[in-house]
Amino acid sequence: MSRIYNFSAGPAILPLEVLQEAQTDLADYKGSGMSVMEMSHRGKEYDAIHAEAIANARELMGLGDDYAVLFLQGGASFQFAMIPMNFLEQGQVADYVSAGSWGAAAVKQARIVGNVNLAAECQKDIPTRMPAAAEMKWTPGAAYSHVTTNETISGTQLRDIPETGSPLIADMSSDILSRPLDYAKFAMVYAGAQKNLGPSGLALVAIRKDLAAKGSITLPTMLKYQTHIDENSLYNTPPCFGIYMLGLTLRWMKRKGLANLFQQNRDKAQMLYDVIDASGYYRGTAVRESRSDMNVTFRLPTEEAEALFIKQASEAGMKQLKGHRSVGGIRASVYNAFPVAGVEALVSFMKDFEKRNG
Questions:
Q1: Closest alpha carbon to 205 in 39, 63, 327
Q2: Low-confidence stretches of the chain (pLDDT beneath 70)
Q3: The model's pTM
Q4: Most buried residue, 29, 289, 293, 325, by most Cβ within 10 Å?
Q5: Phi, psi dihedral angles at 38 (to 5 degrees)
Q6: Active site residues
Q7: Which of 187, 225, 233 is nearest to 82 (CA)?
């Protein structure tokens, strides 16, 4: 087996240990005689998988019993609509920070439902950035406030969590459990699993129970957060295999230790930024104080040079480095599971490529 260094922004790299454990259990899970993909979601074998994944998510995020942990389908994009449908009533306003493509996408869906105030808007700024706290204008009595903590396309990360005066909701799809955070500051966080948690097709939602109880009672059953709390994310057949994989990934995080992972993430990103900053050839696309530890974005002098960089890196076993189609350039996504050796290989390649082409 020959594995590449996979810099994909998502679906993204999973820990090799997790993949190997899943491979071992694929046809016969722990002597049950069946795969997790074949199990009833009401059976005792799957029930243990489900319960452990919830317990580990709660432990790693430091959440008390006043929060519910949910596994929902539709990824983070479905949450863009589900949140305002539950919590943005007629005559109310919701505050949103729009600092990149995903924040803007959340705003677009919320505006279909109700009134949105842009507490801050900088998604079109070049170089890319997150707004400073002084720029954010929060509405007194807002139904809720929404932020995106990491913008994968622009390569920016919200360093300081704002005080908003209303229930704070965060899309953490690309940096959940990647750095020290007090999750109790949030009334709700959600994340598509396919970046730091597991395979695509699943979203993890951690929501304070008192917020969920305020959700609209006129919605169809499947669209209510309270439904999924009451049914322990088992109202309908959940994505069982995705939850199993997420559970294995959370186990891996516990073995690694969050403090170790957090420091490793910081070190991996800094290695890349050090090369960019020392170079007259590479140019980072995000302002320094907003740079992401998860998605390192940069440009070369020409698009032709970028195409050659991507081609030669791929030939050297480093793939998925092409920037998002909407912005171009280079993007190295170095999530929790991305190995240090892969970053070291890219650093070496960048230095050599600059010598040959700079």
A1: 63
A2: 1
A3: 0.96
A4: 293
A5: -105, -10
A6: 102, 171, 195
A7: 225
